[in-house]
Amino acid sequence: MSLITIEKKVLEANNSIADENRSKFKEKGIFSINLISSPGSGKTSLVEQTIIHLKDKMKIAVITGDIQTNLDAERIDKFGVPVVQIITNGGCHLDASLVRNAYKEIENEDIELLIIENVGNLVCPSEYDLGENHKICVMSVTEGDDKPLKYPLIFHHSEAFVINKIDLIPYLKCSLDEMRNNAVKVNPKLKVFSTSCYSCEGMDEWTKWLFHQCRM
Amino acid sequence: MSLITIEKKVLEANNSIADENRSKFKEKGIFSINLISSPGSGKTSLVEQTIIHLKDKMKIAVITGDIQTNLDAERIDKFGVPVVQIITNGGCHLDASLVRNAYKEIENEDIELLIIENVGNLVCPSEYDLGENHKICVMSVTEGDDKPLKYPLIFHHSEAFVINKIDLIPYLKCSLDEMRNNAVKVNPKLKVFSTSCYSCEGMDEWTKWLFHQCRM
């Protein structure tokens, strides 16, 4: 029982810092997204392709969370955008306080789009508001078309769902329609994109939508 | 601070029930494994193939955990082995108490190998002892060869690592050697298998090792 109480307090404290982050981002004219997925769905590749498609149109920065290593920040650093690596040392999700501290490292930068790449975990990050405008769920087609039904929370909370690695469809039993339909069953308002970071299929549609969201 | 204390108490309480589970399984002559992976690495397919390969040699039962749905239990039920579905309703891992309760449903069965399929999450289940003999980490090649470095805890705790979906290697930038090497860097004692549940490559080696572990 006491655990439940404390857990609530943790979430309340997190939400309060998330609101501060949101106010600060708004004041600075920053639109922010929180990318959530399992490990290996291609979040970092999606961030790379998003930067390639949008960097001439708007100023982008990235905060990337990992349990260990700064491999993701090294990959993103090559694109010449401000990037902060958060290493959680075992922590299974980012929280608003970690994002607040990470943002301090880049608060003097001129940023229009802040991409927050969460720890690879389809479950726990769903519950933590970071102060972002939109949560975006990413899933690789290799994960199977039944997964939106099995991990519904993140689909409830997301504004958009990026189905990634669609170049692998010919080699899988996964149905893209079934994956999309299962996601929309959970959240009928979900905007669904299908992308490949290898062939770049679907990348224009995703980045145009994202650009439009930032400028709305 | 208080959260840390309570979290420790939660883990201590869990470990105490895990020890009870372990004693009970030993008394009943049951060898048990706890399969841990991200969503969509192919855990359920691996369970199916393991049953196909071993069911004539030994009596198998399955406890399968999911956040929502009983799709996995329905799949396994077709193989005619006792199966219990745990639905965690949002919970990000199985704990020893859930396994104790699930086992009560099948305690009158004659079981030699109990396969516990955890919730799809590469992070949180790593910390929870269920009373199993071995934790087994499963990862699909589509998740990328850097992942053992980024999610080291489960590799530390596992006896074996099953690299699954190797039939997809020709279509990926993933190196099997690199994935194996990264895992062994984290845990040099790790036994590594490479499998495909489509082509059945590697399945003999994995199931022979598992059979031998049960009979040791």
Structural features, described:
The structure is a homodimer of 216-residue chains. By secondary structure, chain A is α/β, with parallel strands linked by helices. The first copy, chain A, has one domain: P-loop containing nucleotide triphosphate hydrolases (Rossmann fold, 3-Layer(aba) Sandwich). Chain A is 41% helix and 18% strand. Chain A contains eight helices and seven strands. Chain A has helices at residues 2-27, 43-54, 71-77, 96-104, 147-150, 152-157, 176-186, 203-215, and strands at residues 31-36, 60-66, 83-87, 113-117, 134-140, 160-164, 191-194. Chain A has a seven-stranded parallel sheet, with helices on both faces. In chain A, helix 1 runs parallel beside helix 4 (96-104) and helix 2 (43-54) crosses helix 8 (203-215). The longest helix of chain A is centred in the first third of the chain and has 26 residues, at 2-27. The termini of chain A are far apart. The mean pLDDT of chain A is 94. The interface between A and B is large, with 37 and 37 residues.
